[in-house]
Design a protein that fits this description.
With about 575 residues, this protein is α+β, with helices and mostly antiparallel strands. The protein is about 20% helix and about 30% strand. Strand 19 and strand 20 form a beta hairpin.
Amino acid sequence: MSSFMNMACIGDFDPFTAAIPATRVELTVSCRNLLDRDTFSKSDPICVLYTQGIANREWREFSRTEMINNTLNPDFVRKFTLDYFFEERQNLRFDLYDLDSKSDNLSKHKDFLGQAFCTLGEVVGSMGSCVEKPLIGIPGKKCGTIKVRAEELSNCRESVMLQFCGNKLDKKDFFGKSDPFLVFYRSNEDGSFTICHKTEVVKNTLDPVWQAFKIPVKALCNGDYDRSIKVEVYDWDRDGGCTVCVYSSSHDFIGEFNTSYREMSRGQSQFHSYEVVNPKKGKKKKKYLNSGTVTLLSCLVDMELTFLDYIKGGTQISFTVAIDFTASNGNPSQPTSLHYMSPYQLNAYAMALRAVGEIIQDYDSDKMFPALGFGAKLPPDGRVSHEFALNGNPQNPYCSGIEGVMEAYYQSLKSVRLYGPTHFSPVINHVARYAQSVKDGSQYFILLIISDGVITDMAQTKESIVNAATLPMSIIIVGVGPAEFNEMIELDGDEERISSQGRFAERDIVQFVPFRDYIDRRGNHILSMARLAKEVLAEIPDQFLSYMRTRCIKPGLCPPAYNPAPAVHPLLTRRVSRI
């Protein structure tokens, strides 16, 4: 039991929520029809990757490929490996040079062959995780093309479902049998051990059957199939309290055994029994054999699917924006208004829209986004609507890219009259109706609501969210302005799952943040937008995966043919009604 003294308490340990390194992707680069800069032979190209800082927008060299001699169509072998974050806009720049000296200083290589720009999200979000772009940068010249392909590095994504039973374990209780439980330790390279799992206690038996449990292989052995795994067997003792602090001297040590993931994985086809040995007991008793046995009843291996598995398989992220046009925002013509269109900087609505939209648009093939408004009186008859098309076309509310959404938003401010009240449920139901018709994993819907104040249809909004939680859908709410936002905070299910009429949401699909918490104090709006996007988008991959897993939807093996949005949007063909 001496090994206990340097062990951590495992009461709160969860191998599925423990810190895991960021998803890593590997980029492969090839070019075609490069410029020929050499007189007596073809160019000797090299590709240099630059990444851009979030705050100062400064380009920094990240890495280089090898140089390939005498070719205009290089397929570079050396890869670029980067950490991938869905919630960040990761700008990339690829520069091509004809290498004509041995110097590492690129300024000494006068033969620039061209460059291309993209985002990492654009690469992984493209069909087949591959983009092809023309090389630019030399006026009047066709510089050829560059192709960038992304592949997620597996990083041991297996998980395993294990179940054990015990047989003839030592009796440790004076008035009854033992109350056994198992504790699993992963061995480290320095010879120490780290707790990675604990079973439940099975009361009053020497022949326990523990419940099956699932654990990532990375947590069990750090991806090394032959690394030793130590399993210790204990008799739970009431004086030791709960089992979470296993090094309590009140829990009786029954024995231990060692195994490995490779050894256990053979248990998929046959049972495997281990002798439970107490070393101290073995020294005292010459005829001591063991303190019972533990048998591996089942070992089922599964591969943990990732967000990028689905994106690579063709799942599209469908983005809809809904903007608050209620009168509490102030007169758009006045600088005090949250909708004020300054010639010098974006207002809070525009910043939130651009921050989130510029990232999500990389995962939508046709870049056509429905853009809605709510809480305004519409021309020509002044009817109040909580679900109107920003571009003024209810038969086709789609806007081309985030720039198209921005333009529609600015035009709406010139034509509608801010009114009220603040109703969220119509726009939530709008997207939910569309999501209801596409539940095969081919699309996932994200609704961005930007609002300044108190929700006036709270009961209906809760009901809409509870209903939407069963659909392939997430909701982002950004609060702008100085309001308290208590109602919006209540909709975010991080602390307590939202409910309506006694029915709880199946999963948490809402993420709310007040924009003011992420505004850079020095006035760096680019940094403010990056902070906001990182916060509101961080939960999307997990929300996405929770839907796919609970519906047992697997990624497509190859990208399906993508059908662009219909010319007539089926959900906006009806007339808006009076409130």
